[in-house]
Backbone:
């Protein structure tokens, strides 16, 4: 693609909206990150392969790259090199691995930050904002509240407004709500929820997911017999209902 001379590319990047590219193969995780980043004034794009990530870096010129370096058996870490070769760009590496080697490799290639999966939503919001600001001078104004159906999620104060009720969540309850809401209408199995919130190294308890779903439902005053937010799908898992039953009727 032809480029102008001087600082034209940099000027063009600054003038346009902040663009965030996600390279994440796991759809449920990608959706959760996408929802979380809606707390910033960002235009977001998600791709699932290394090839598509490389194309998007070249053609879309993102301001921030969030790359799951475990994609395609670790080949996605090469995208850090590709992004660095393009000029100023913030880079956050994501991984489920806890080994020091992966972290050192990501930083050696030029990553600005490193986030382990599972993550806390407010932590991702803060880190993305900080990396964009350090890299580009400004990151725009954070949007503390998101509305999903008749729920309003406040990431700054870690609370939810459900109708007239104000609910305070633990970090795990917040992460569970984001995961379910980001994948509204899709059944998430207990194994998917366990992996997303506790990680692959967690020693499984038979009812850990059910216990935390019950706790979140209790705060949302959500009767499982007549679910408004979280529906139990027999022998399958859980599904977030994107709008209230009242809105459907």
Residues:
């Amino acid at each position: 693609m032809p480029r102008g001379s001087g600082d034209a590319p940099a000027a063009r990047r600054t003038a346009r909206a902040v663009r965030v590219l996600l390279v994440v193969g796991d759809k449920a995780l990608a959706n959760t990150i996408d929802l979380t980043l809606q707390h910033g004034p960002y235009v977001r794009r998600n791709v699932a392969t290394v090839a598509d990530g490389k194309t998007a870096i070249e053609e879309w010129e993102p301001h921030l790259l969030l790359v799951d370096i475990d994609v395609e058996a670790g080949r996605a870490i090469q995208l850090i090199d590709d992004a660095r070769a393009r000029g100023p760009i913030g880079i956050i590496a994501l991984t489920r691995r806890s080994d020091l080697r992966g972290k050192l490799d990501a930083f050696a290639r030029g990553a600005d930050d490193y986030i382990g999966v599972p993550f806390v939503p407010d932590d991702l919001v803060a880190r993305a904002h900080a990396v964009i600001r350090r890299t580009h001078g400004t990151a725009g104004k954070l949007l503390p509240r998101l509305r999903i159906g008749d729920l309003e999620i406040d990431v700054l104060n870690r609370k939810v407004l459900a109708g007239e009720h104000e609910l305070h969540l633990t970090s795990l309850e917040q992460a569970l709500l984001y995961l379910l809401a980001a994948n509204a209408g899709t059944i998430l199995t207990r194994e998917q929820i366990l992996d997303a919130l506790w990680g692959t190294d967690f020693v499984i308890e038979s009812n850990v997911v059910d216990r935390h779903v019950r706790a979140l439902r209790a705060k949302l005053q959500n009767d499982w017999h007549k679910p408004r937010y979280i529906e139990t799908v027999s022998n399958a898992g859980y599904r977030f209902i994107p709008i209230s039953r009242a809105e459907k009727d």
In short: The chain has two domains: 8-136, 145-248. The chain is about 40% helix and 20% strand. Confidence is low (pLDDT under 50) at residues 1-15.
